[in-house]
């Protein structure tokens, strides 16, 4: 799964992401977090959107799907979680 923001996350939102998902965050940049977890509570996302002061979009990603991060690095979701795509 990935969690996406239109604008860069503020410091409070980044901290909340770390507190909520901890070591289940495979990778996170200023606008996207790749999460190795398949369950999420709507209440968590509501709180996160309020703290971030912006819309938060959650995507359920299928194995094989690739996400490109802000720095251009690509990650592919596998049955074992997100893996960096080799250049």
Notes on the structure:
This protein has 87 residues and is of the alpha+beta class. The chain has one domain (2-84). It has helices at 11-21, 42-52; strands at residues 2-5, 25-28, 32-35, 56-59, 66-68, 74-78, 81-84. Helix 1 runs antiparallel to helix 2.
State mean pLDDT (0 to 100 scale): 93
Strand content: 25-35%
**What's the overall geometry?**
globular
Radius of gyration: 12 Å
Number of helices: 2
Main sheet overview: 4 strands, antiparallel
Number of folding domains?
1
Q: Using DSSP, what is the number of strands?
A: 7
Order of helices and strands: EHEEHEEEE
Query: How would you write the strand order of the largest sheet?
Result: 2-3-1-4
Stretches where pLDDT is under 50 for at least 5 consecutive residues are: none
Amount of helix:
25-40%
What class would the helix/strand composition place it in?
A: alpha+beta
From the N-terminal CA to the C-terminal CA, the straight-line distance is 23 Å
Helix and strand topology:
Layout lengths: L1 E4 L5 H11 L3 E4 L3 E4 L6 H11 L3 E4 L6 E3 L5 E5 L2 E4 L3
Helix pairs in contact: 1-2
Keywords:
25% helix, 7 strands, single chain, 2 helices, 87 residues, four-stranded antiparallel sheet, three-stranded antiparallel sheet, alpha+beta
In short:
This protein is an alpha+beta fold.
């Amino acid at each position: 799964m990935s969690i996406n923001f239109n604008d860069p996350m503020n410091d409070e939102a980044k901290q909340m992401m770390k507190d909520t998902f901890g070591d289940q965050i495979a990778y996170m940049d200023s606008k996207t977090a790749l999460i190795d977890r398949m369950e999420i509570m709507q209440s968590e996302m509501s709180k996160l959107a309020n703290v971030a002061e912006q819309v938060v979009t959650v995507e359920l990603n299928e194995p094989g799907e690739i996400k490109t991060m802000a720095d251009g690095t690509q990650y592919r979701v596998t049955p074992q979680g997100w893996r960096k795509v080799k250049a």
